[in-house]
Amino acid sequence: MAVSACSLAIAFSGTPAVANPLDAPLSPQADGAEVQDLGFKRTYTIHADSAWLADGRVLSPAYITLTKGVITRISSREPQAQKSLLGSGPKPKIIKVDGTLAAGVVDAWSSVLPAEIRLDRRPLPFSKVADDLPIQVVGADPALAAAVAAQRSAGIAATYIGRADGNLMRGLGVPVGFSAHDLPYAGGAEFLDLMVAGDALGVQRGITDLNNLFSEAVGYRDSVDDYQEELEKYEESLKKYQEELDKFIKEQKKEEGKEGDSKADGEDDKEKKEKKRPKRPQRPSPPVSTTARDMILDAIDGKISVRVQVESAAGIRAAIALQEEHNLNMMLVGCDEAVQCRFELAAAGIGVVLDVNRVHNKANGQRFIDQFQQLLDAEVDVALSSGGRNLGPMLLAYAGEMIAQGADADAVWAALTSTPARMLGMASNFGQINRGCSGSMILFGGNSPFDASALFQAHQPK
Amino acid sequence: MLAATILSLALAQATQAPIWALQPERVILPDGSSAKGVTVLVQNGQILDVGTDLQLANNVRKMALPGVLAPGFVDAFSAYGTDHPAQEDSRSLTPSLRAADAIDLRDGDAWKNLRDAGVTSVHVLPSPGNVQAGWGAMATTGGDQKRILNGKTRQVLSLAAEAVNDRDFGPSSQAGAVELLEQSKPLEIKDIQQKGAVIHVASAEAVRAARGMLGKQVESRWLLWGDPGQYGGELRGEIVGMQMPADSSWNPRQMETLKRLHKAGVQITFGTWANRSARKPADLRWAAILMSRMTGDPAAAMASITSAAAKFVGNNKVGAIAKGRRADLVLWSAHPLDSTASIRAVMIGGQTVSRGPAQEN
What is the average pLDDT across A90-94? Predict the structure, then answer.
């Protein structure tokens, strides 16, 4: 790695700049209610040979203190027992390890799915993954726990869970961290998952459907405005009607008081006056909304971000146009032809999540690396992911293959950690070794985390 | 007479191949570890000696190699080398069939792709469609010397129901396969006791049945089908071939199985043959990298595609950088299990078949 091997002697102890994420509501289930117990209990310090900090800095030696799964102190000096009027407190527990600590990987496109989604045969366009996450209890979802354990042992600290089934609209996905029970917990804001995929014709249809989805939602919102106007008109006409009705009733009574009229004439007049009875105005019917449409409107209002799976340049351009039209917060996944739109993507501030498996393809491997570099050169945020597959340790291995074929090592590492964390809105909790961040880290003994010839351990907080 | 003897000695000296002292930054040793300051002496396609304090004669040519020198990978059970599967469908027993007869040695893309992936030898097996399938063969992936290293490696027996299921000639089940093999008396196959067998299995019952028929007289290697997580415990201490899944499709169970087989003392090797479709040559290295990560044992992972693979084949001339072995060597920019490493040069039988930035001193 090209990170400079400077030794920092600065102790970063003190009040964490970033609030402990465990003190905040962790998932929509817990929103406003009690915080879930993620199973992290202990406080201890890891003493490693060195640690990769943010911005390419290396701390050597490194003393990283974890409290309930969160990094609370980073220093090159050993923590001391706290002194008080009553004397010294107990010496903090220090675990000595050989090797270098680095941030856990953030896989922005993985295959981890809770049972509620795995077993659901009828994907709904408005499902919410956060609602399907299991409660933090050991044994809540054994298959999911096995998948998460595999992810954690491969050095992955956080990922994104979204529905991979369904077509255009797949509901709300959510970035997640992993608890001590090997279960995911919501670790960031939700994304509206959309997809435009398929061959040339399929893409055109997908683009049309995508645009229709948003224009229909906008049309609905316009119809709500129209309804308000109609409602105001209705209330005015209702008042007028009331006045006319009052007048009519008065006239009716006046007519009934006249007893001298002949019965036959009176009957004729009655018929005439009944015909003049004012007609009550009809209340306009309100436009009916749907949950799916509300999600689109939330995206248009900037309340939720949008995540579009798209491969072709035409699809990517359509997504960019949609983002510009509705001022959406957007990220793209897949993006096989993103390089053709790199400048538009950079101008729109849209990041892309690439599938690292493509480097493994002998025919297209070099093209993929060129694409990666060109996107970075154009200043597009690029994340590398497992592409919705079960890669386990091979995520890092395939990323290492990119370096073997000429990709910049620092850029590859950032694309696996800090960049996806930022794109998923988890930058304060994942993607770097920093105070307030997750203590899920990688410990490696070789040249880099990509080196399988030496020690590699995923540190899972206790 | 004396003059003739002197002349012949002089001619012999003049034609004697030079001795090369390869001095890479690091060398992968037979136990899978790597060491600095090791010199590898090569002559006539063979490794003369390996050591840190070798006395080098004046006529030895030294060559500093920038990188890590590793043994060429051994594809323990290969899908390459034959355009058509080595098999005969008209019979259910073909113990004399030789995969060597089906190997196409013309230098095509398949051989080049193998060399580009650092694979210097392949063990081509007959198709496991028959209970007695025939003999495997060992070939190099390049070089001008004799390419078939061994035309009869091991007898291939198949008890995997999925492989032998044949309505016309039978058997149609594992039990039928066991019965057929028992009746055909595998111990009477010529040379099987000397050369050993590779046995395709998919269950503990198949393993036990094969053991019952072959006893300890036949050195057995096992090629695993199905879910080895269900029967791998039966193979404690054995050398097995594990099929690699297709691209990027390892799942947590397969990874855990790999880890537990290793923990149980099973020696794992990898090959490019698979019952659905051939794996890419580069997948051998990826499988070893995955194994290293899952087991935390890089030496065993390295062995899975070098020395343990050579044991699977029964060939003690390949798979390690050691005295007396073939000079099938690959120079890497870093340790081959470091995924950032790339190949700088490939030598097969002492002949450099692709060259990087090596420099002669």
Answer: 81
Please give the structure tokens belonging to residue A65: 């203190």
Reported ipTM: the value is 0.88
Percent of chain A at pLDDT above 90? 54
Parallel/antiparallel/unpaired status of strands A62-67 and A70-75? antiparallel
The identity of residue A140, as a single letter, is A
Give the gap in angstroms from C-alpha B256 to the nearest C-alpha of chain A. Answer: 9
User: What is the crossing angle of helices A365-377 and A409-416, to 10°?
Assistant: 80
Q: What is the pLDDT of residues B267-277, one digit of tens each?
A: 999 999 988 78
Interface of A with B in 359-388 (CB under 8 A): 360-362, 386-387
Best of A453, A455, A456, A457 to mutate (most B CBs within 10 Å, chain B): A453
The reply to whether B266 touches chain A by the CB within 8 Å rule is: no
How many Cβ pairs closer than 8 A exist between chain A and B? 107
* Cβ neighbours around B361 below 10 Å, total: 8
Longest Cα–Cα distance of chain A, Å, equals 117
**Measured between alpha carbons, how far is A328 from A299 in angstroms, rounded to an integer?**
6
B91 close to B131: Cβ distance less than 8 angstroms: no
Closest partner CB to B338 (pick from A389, A446, A455)? A446
For residue A393, give how far its alpha carbon lies from the nearest alpha carbon of chain B (Å).
6
Q: Do A210 and A218 meet the contact criterion of CB atoms below 8 Å apart?
A: no
Instruction: Judge: B255–A393 Cβ closer than 8 Å, yes or no.
Output: yes
Express each pLDDT in A408-424 by its tens digit. 999 999 999 999 999 99
Nearest of A269, A78, A305 to residue A174 by alpha carbon = A305
In degrees and rounded to multiples of 5, residue A361 shows phi and psi of -80, 115
**CB–CB contact B339 A357 (8 Å):** no
Q: What's the rounded Cα separation, in Å, for the pair B301 and B308?
A: 9
Cβ distance B162 to B275 under 8 Å?
yes
| Bond preceding residue B171 cis, omega within 30 of 0 | yes
- Interchain pair B292, A448: CB under 8 A: no
List chain A residues with CB under 8 Å of B253. Answer: 146
Q: Distance (Å) from the C-alpha of residue A446 to the closest C-alpha of chain B? A: 8
Can you tell me the distance from the alpha carbon of B247 to that of A56, in angstroms, rounded to the nearest whole number? 33
Tens-digit pLDDT profile for residues A197-228: 766 667 888 899 899 999 999 999 888 888 88
The residue of chain B nearest to residue A146, with distances taken between CA atoms, is B252
DSSP, res A56: G
| A390–B contact, CB cutoff 8 A | yes
* Least Cα separation, residue B301 to chain A (angstroms): 9
Q: What are phi and psi of B172, to 5 degrees?
A: -115, 5
Orientation of helix B204-214 relative to helix B174-183, angle to 10° = 0
Q: Note whether A396 contacts B: Cβ–Cβ < 8 A.
A: yes
Residues of chain B found within 8 Å of residue A390, distances taken between Cβ atoms: 248-252
Strand partners for B139: B122, B148
Cis peptide before A25 (omega within 30 of 0): no
Which residues make beta-bridge pairs with A59? A51
Question: Are the CB atoms for A278 and A241 separated by under 8 Å?
Answer: yes
Radius of gyration of the CA atoms of chain A, in A: 31
DSSP assigned state of A21: G
Measured between alpha carbons, how far is residue B60 from residues B24, B25, B162, B330 in Å? Answer: 16, 19, 55, 21
B202: distance to nearest CA of chain A, Å?
Answer: 24
Two tokens, residue A372: 């990666």
Residue B136 contacts A, CB cutoff 8 Å: no
Q: What is the DSSP string of B267-292?
A: EEEEES--SSSPPPTHHHHHHHHHHH
Of A109, A214, A129, A141, the residue nearest A170 (C-alpha): A129
Is there a contact between B119 and B284 (Cβ–Cβ < 8 Å)? yes
Residues 6 or more apart whose Cβ sits within 8 Å of residue A377: none
